[in-house]
Write a structure and sequence with these properties.
Blueprint (H helix, E strand, L loop, with lengths): L5 E6 L6 H10 L4 E5 L2 H15 L4 E4 L4 E2 L6 E5 L11 E4 L11 H10 L5 E6 L4 H7 L4 E4 L6 E6 L9 E4 L3 H15 L3 E3 L5 H12 L5 E4 L13 E4 L3 E3 L4 E3 L2 H8 L9 E5 L8 H9 L8 E3 L9 H8 L8 E3 L4 H10 L2 H6 L3 H11 L9 H18 L4 H11 L6 H19 L7 H27 L2 H12 L5 E3 L4 E4 L2 E7 L2 E4 L5 H27 L6 E3 L4 E4 L2 E7 L8 E4 L7 H22 L1 H8 L6 H11 L3 E3 L4 H6 L2 H8 L4 E2 L3 E3 L6 H15 L14 E3 L8 H4 L2 E4 L2 E4 H12 L11 H7 L3 H10 L2 E9 L6 H6 L2 H16 L14 H14 L10 E9 L44 H4 L25 H9 L1
Parallel strand pairs: 1-7, 1-8, 2-5, 2-6, 3-5, 6-7, 9-16, 10-12, 10-13, 11-12, 13-16, 17-18
Antiparallel strand pairs: 3-4, 14-15, 19-20, 20-21, 21-22, 23-24, 24-25, 25-26, 27-29, 28-29, 30-32, 31-32, 33-34
Helix pairs in contact: 5-18, 6-16, 7-8, 9-10, 10-13, 12-13, 14-15, 15-16, 17-18, 18-19, 20-21, 26-27, 30-31
């Protein structure tokens, strides 16, 4: 130790300005070195000295970073990286109380015992170190510094009730991330500071906090090591930590070191607990506030006089016992564990046989285990590095390049990027070692560039996950009580102060779904405050919008373009619904009233336009008596009434009354009384909505697609739906009521008692197959008998030319007769006696093509329809005499509401029923088969012929 060197121990609690004092003392000398506990703090002090003296005279040396200008005068280092034997005028070691740390204490103890400046040496730390320093450092002087502000314990406090400018301290990565996520949801976001972060990431995160983007910080105990931040409150999420070997309670002086970060300069601070942490013991809390702690009795020590003859000799020297009662041998650190593991490897033992080789092995073993995977994997990596250095003198460029290239990726989540950062720190450390790589400058720059890229990516991921910038910005603006600026684009996206907060749908604000908890409340408060003027402007624009921009939905909603602005509500009259506007309460009563008035005007005009014929019918004052009563029923039923529902009222109407109603477009159909103009798609769509409102349905049925004659029957629909939709249910399908009346006109001329087949026109107007038409007819009250028969093919041209004209006539006559003849059978069949005419054609065809003789005859399916003898449930099927068909033509109405009848009340056919030959006729479904000729060679032929003739 230099004879004239002054040694001072500057002791006291946190926030006393000790580090600032040491920097000032160092800059008073020509040269100096200061050792700091964390590379984060080393970087902070380096930046301060560079700002004061410039980068050309300041060096920064840590395990992973080395900035050494040619004219370096002031060296800022981590304690482990402090150079020895430099002979600087000034030397300082910060946080000297870490001599008692089980993991790193031996390094600080070594600096306490062996490191000195030529003119001045300063040890900075806690008062608890005073007895140990006095016992171990002869001639030391003590300087006591008092805290510049007060520290108060506030007990337990929930995150939701924590005030801004607070730090939550956790002792594991999982705890830090969990609380950061909780604060993001409730407070808008938090910065994250951990010792494992690179200086670049840490500085970026601290900047978020310092500039006010976030008001909360979540950190490990790294913030207790001299980091100066604007913190008003420190909350411990736990008072237990893992020290590398076991879980243990934090000592009061350790809690004080962290709690002391609260308050800066003359500002007082507070500390407490949060989450599941138990409240501090009253005595511990008071000791922290009074800065009274038990003195440190034992310092961790490791022998610095190492023997490099053999690996075993080196291990024995590292395990040597101290010779002072206040010193205890440090537990085996990672470097010693690695040395012991590698010394057992045969190849390593064969190489480490002399002093330089053993010293090289020790230098390799001192590479920190940044990855923290396992001791075995770390030892394997060190074995490879030592092998290259011992054999080639350098780490090969191609091998190192592959290691770095695998890590140089910025994709992945926070954990992935954190692992890559820890991996690159290993190669950064290797590159910093003098003589280990070919081009030190290149590899230091390369590893530093990769670390910077990973650091930036990690900062971005941390910010994305734990900081909601929009909430942070809005909270800051609200605290400052400034007017917030909101913008709404043409898509309805709302931004406040440039931050997306949600969408404006009509006159309701829909905030971003990602927001929740306190964050959601803040967003809504700020957004609605900023949107107030937009609501008024939008209401004015809506009130002056044309009706073409507004529409109703089939569920009764009211839309302005693509935005829902209200809904229909049932009124006292089905044709007079009211409206409810969708307007946020914060928009104000004036806006709500204006929107409601505009919607009411729209629906009133829409009903007036689409239901004009129906409304005119209801307003006709010339109608009186039965006509007026019937008109009222038409209006009440929205223009469509099943005839069965008003059968008696229709019978009571005379021709003059009916004529007066027909002038308004009322049509008296066989199945339905309706107004054709009200069956158009637009009135139908509105009629269904109004009907569903009046019925109080929860889910409104949709209108059938326009233009379809038949649609599948909705058997689960509410009663009356088919009529309101303009259809009548008939089996599996429903038919449009106006087309049903056309079909009824066609059916009227058929022999419904004797049976008839469907005509092509019937299938054409319904657009159905024969099978579907059969189901429809059954739904209308008819029976449908299915049958098969030989399909009659057109005769070949050659045969037709040779055939006698009367033969053709004979072939047609039975078919016509069969079609016209009244019969109770459901199936019209071809008479057996008419078969020879068809056989003649078949025989002619056989003569041309013998192969056709063996072919099966082609069959066709047909249906015979007959009135089922029951009154159909939809309405009268007849019409009163004198009731003129609306399609033109007067037709007599059949009494009784059943199937149309002729004179005498008997079913009327198309002529043959009355004028044809009397007596029963027999029919078959197909022509009789020709009898097979008896084989003359058959021995039983004669007997068979006799039986047949008999």
């Amino acid at each position: 130790m230099p004879q004239n060197s002054r040694i001072t121990a500057v002791l006291g609690p946190t926030n006393t300005g000790k580090t600032h004092y040491a920097i000032e003392r160092m800059l008073a000398y020509r040269t100096g070195v200061i050792g700091l506990p964390l590379r984060l703090l080393a970087r902070e002090v380096y930046d301060k000295i560079v700002a004061a003296r410039g980068p050309s005279v300041v060096a920064l040396v840590t395990g992973e970073e080395r900035i050494v200008p040619d004219r370096a005068q002031y060296w800022v280092c981590t304690v482990e990286a402090m150079p020895e034997g430099m002979g600087c005028d000034f030397l300082a070691v910060d946080e000297i109380q870490l001599c008692a740390d089980p993991e790193r204490g031996h390094v600080f103890t070594d600096r306490l015992l062996r490191s000195r400046g030529l003119q001045e040496t300063i040890f900075l730390g806690s008062d608890s170190m005073r007895p140990a320093i006095a016992a171990l450092v002869p001639g030391v002087q003590f300087m006591r510094r008092e805290r510049m502000s007060q520290l108060e314990y506030t007990g337990s406090r929930k995150i939701s009730r924590m005030k801004p400018r607070a730090a939550v301290v956790g002792f594991s990565v999982d705890d830090v991330y969990a609380f950061a996520e909780l604060i993001r949801r409730q407070k808008g976001g938090a910065a994250v500071v951990m010792g494992a972060l690179s200086p670049r990431t840490r500085n970026a995160q601290v900047e978020l906090y310092q500039n006010g983007d976030v008001d909360y910080l979540v950190a490990t105990d790294a913030i207790g090591m001299g980091l100066n931040l604007d913190i008003n409150h420190v909350a411990f999420s736990s008072t237990v930590k893992f020290d590398g070997r076991r879980m243990r309670m934090l000592m009061p002086n350790e809690l004080a070191q962290i709690a002391g970060r609260a308050g800066r300069g003359m500002s007082d601070g507070t500390f407490g607990v949060t989450g599941e942490a138990e409240p501090l013991d009253e005595g511990v809390a008071q000791a922290i506030m009074d800065h009274r702690f038990a003195p440190v009795r034992k310092l961790h020590w490791r022998n610095a006089r190492l023997q490099f003859g053999t690996p075993d000799a080196l291990i024995r020297s590292l395990e040597a016992a101290p010779d002072h009662e206040m010193l205890i041998r440090s537990r085996d650190a990672d470097d010693l564990l690695a040395l012991k593991a590698l010394s057992q490897v045969a190849e390593i033992a064969a190489r480490a046989i002399d002093g330089p080789s053993v010293k090289l092995l020790w230098d390799v073993c001192r590479v920190p285990d940044f990855r923290g995977i396992s001791h075995a994997e770390h030892a394997q990596l060190l074995e490879t590095v030592f092998g290259y250095l011992h054999e080639k003198g350098k780490v090969p460029n191609d091998w190192l390049a592959r290691q770095v290239q695998r890590i140089d990726r910025t994709d992945g989540d926070i954990d992935t990027l954190s692992k890559r950062l820890s991996f690159i720190r290993t190669w950064t450390y290797v590159a910093q070692r003098s003589g280990w790589v070919d081009d030190e400058s290149h590899w230091r720059g390369e590893t530093r560039a990769v670390e910077d890229r990973l650091s930036d990516a990690l900062h971005e991921r941390l910010t994305q996950r734990f900081v909601d910038r929009r909430t942070s910005v809005l909270l800051r603006r609200l605290k400052q009580k400034e007017a917030l600026l909101a913008e709404v684009n043409d898509k309805g996206e709302v931004t406040v102060e440039g931050e997306f907060v949600g969408r404006l749908e009509g006159f309701r604000f829909r905030q971003d779904k990602d927001a929740s908890g306190q964050e959601a409340k803040t967003l809504r408060q700020a957004s609605l405050q900023a949107l107030a003027p937009h609501f008024s402007l939008r209401a004015d624009r809506f009130y002056n919008a044309p009706d073409t921009e507004i529409d109703f939905t089939e569920q009764g909603g009211l839309m302005w373009g693509t935005e829902a602005v209200g809904k229909l509500v049932a009124g006292a009259d089905p044709l007079k619904p009211t409206v409810t506007a969708f307007v946020d309460d914060e928009a104000g009563a004036d806006v709500a009233q204006k929107v409601e008035r505009r919607l009411q005007h729209f629906i009133d005009r829409k009903i007036a336009a689409l239901f004009e014929p129906l409304l005119a019918l209801g307003r006709d004052e010339e109608l009186n008596g039965l006509a007026r009563g019937f008109a009222f029923q038409m209006v009440e039923n929205l223009g469509v009434i099943p005839r069965a529902q008003v059968a008696d009222e229709v019978k009571a109407l005379d021709q003059d009354t009916r004529g007066a109603l027909r002038k308004h477009g009322v049509r008296f159909g066989q199945f339905t009384i309706f107004m054709p103009l009200m069956l158009k798609p637009a009135p139908t769509r509105l009629r269904l909505v109004l009907w569903a409102l009046a019925k109080g349905l929860d889910i409104f049925p949709e209108a059938p697609p326009p233009g379809l004659v038949t649609v599948p029957t909705d058997k689960g629909a509410a009663e009356g739906y088919d009529a309101m939709a303009g259809y009548r249910a008939a089996g599996e399908r429903s038919i449009r009521i106006d087309m049903l009346e056309r079909l009824a006109d066609m059916l009227r001329v058929e022999d419904s008692r004797g049976g008839f087949e469907a005509k092509a026109d019937m299938l054409s107007i319904t657009g159905m197959t024969l099978e579907q038409f059969a189901d429809l007819m059954q739904g209308l009250g008819y029976t449908a008998e299915r049958g098969e028969r030989v399909k009659v093919k057109a005769a070949p041209v050659a045969v037709a030319a040779d055939a006698p004209a009367d033969a053709a006539a004979e072939g047609e006559a039975p078919a016509a007769e069969a079609a016209e003849a009244p019969t109770e059978d459901a199936v019209a069949e071809t008479p057996a006696e008419e078969a020879p005419a068809e056989d003649a054609v078949a025989e002619a065809a056989t003569e041309e093509t013998k192969s056709d003789e063996a072919a099966e005859p082609e069959m066709e399916v047909f249906f015979t329809f007959a009135w089922g003898g029951r009154r159909n449930q939809g309405g009268n099927r007849g019409r009163g005499r004198g009731d003129r068909n609306e399609r033109g033509g007067e037709r007599g109405e059949r009494k009784g509401g059943g199937k149309p009848r002729g004179k005498g009340g008997k079913p009327r056919g198309d002529g043959k029923g009355r004028g044809g030959p009397k007596g029963a006729k027999s029919y078959e479904a197909r022509p009789p088969k020709k009898e097979k000729a008896i084989d003359p060679d058959n021995p039983f032929a004669a007997a068979l012929m006799g039986l047949k003739k008999g």
